[in-house]
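REVIEWER CHECKLIST
Item 1: Sequence provided? yes
Item 2: Single chain? yes
Item 3: Sequence as submitted:
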Amino acid sequence: MEHDFWLERWENDEIGFHQEAINPALQRFWPRLDLPRGGPVFVPLCGKSHDMEWLRGQGHTIIGVELSTRACEQFFRAQGVDPERDLREPFVVYRAAGYELWAGDFFHMPADSLADVAAVYDRASLVALPPGMRQRYADHMATLVPAGVQVLLVSFEYPEEEMSGPPFSVRESEVRALFGAGFHVELFQRTAVLDEHPRFRARGLSELWESIYRLQRKD
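Item 4: Structure as written out by the authors:
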């Protein structure tokens, strides 16, 4: 999507994609990554997600990237802290309380910022991108994270003729095609979740599936 689309959504507080509850799949499957306590976790297109708070509660430091400075500022305001702000062109970097949020374009994220990252959590990044941007996203992710790093990826699948994204439908075959060159891909679970998302039923969906993957960067 164009930058202006997302910036306008945040400016107008049209953020139905923001979830007040912690994602159940994160809580269930994160332990299966078997990560060292304290390892930095990268959250792309992080918004002001409460999932970051849960990850911080597991002892991880958080590195997020988010296009909207408004989202970053709202996140820290909710934490009750006033972050330091550093300019690292083309980003503004906010830091406080174990969080480091980069306000800017994911595709400009420098690899040295993630040199020590232990894992990646993608709940709302891949499914936010239209088809023409997904391969670029997967390729850039492969350049950002070191060998061996695991990604917990949450994806949606639904009849595409029934609803236009975002979030977009990304099927397992596409996930494997996008990431297969740079990552080992393992499907943890595929579950029907339409009853948990009534707003999507209201948009015309007859079925909605949530798929949880572990990706691991190849050596």
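Item 5: Key structural point noted by reviewer: The chain has one domain: 3-14+22-217.
Item 6: Recommendation: ____
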